């Protein structure tokens, strides 16, 4: 199965001010989507109506279940991958309309109002300027982006070379059980320096960062249809109950209830 590398909106339009200040698109594909690193002048809000998206900005990795969306400010480099066939929507906001919107990439919890407004706007022809009714719907989209709750589904990456090497290795294989001491030896950095600088650069202790990396991989595997027991073992947990306890502490529900809720949203 081949990934679809195309962006959701023509790059010339994503980089321009021409046309409506807000352009919404909806795309469905039998293939998974993998868009290489790129950027554009318009800010972008992207979400899946089913399945899971992961987005890398170079500074962090963001995971997006169907109940959430990622806001990417203009000129922010990013790449995207869907886990399974792609069915999603996106909103592109002209620079002039981004003044009141977040200036950093983040995950937002999607409201029913936002989803309905985006899908309504995606059904219009965006070749013409919006009429008064359409302009009000587009204004609702902007208001929702500015006010929706932020979600803790981001994995910030440290900037220091040795720390980033450790973080990328753990992000690629969250089941790696090496201790902080062993990681420090592997990267040729003092354990105390690793602990102190990792927390300073990512905003969380090393152990908490590792747990979040495991949580985000668990979401990917869960949405891909893997059984919970298998996910727990793949992520290095000694028991299913320990994995479920971590998941519930992080997201407030068990993996099975979380999956049921996401499927109902989709």
Please characterize this protein's 3D structure.
The protein folds into two domains: 11-151, Jelly Rolls; 158-265, Homeodomain-like (Arc Repressor Mutant, subunit A). The chain contains ten helices and eleven strands. It has helices at residues 11-14, 112-122, 132-147, 161-172, 180-187, 191-202, 206-223, 228-234, 240-251, 255-265, and strands spanning 22-28, 34-38, 43-48, 52-56, 60-64, 68-72, 78-83, 87-93, 106-109, 150-151, 154-156. The strands form two sheets. A six-stranded antiparallel β-sheet has the order 1-8-3-6-9-10. Strands 2-7-4-5-11 form a five-stranded antiparallel β-sheet, covered by helices on one side. Helix 2 packs antiparallel against helix 3. The longest helix has 18 residues, at 206-223. It is globular and about 60 Å long. 36% of the residues are buried. Residues 1-5 have low confidence and may be disordered. This is Helix-turn-helix transcriptional regulator. Residues 164-261 form the HTH araC/xylS-type domain. Pfam families: AraC_binding, HTH_18.
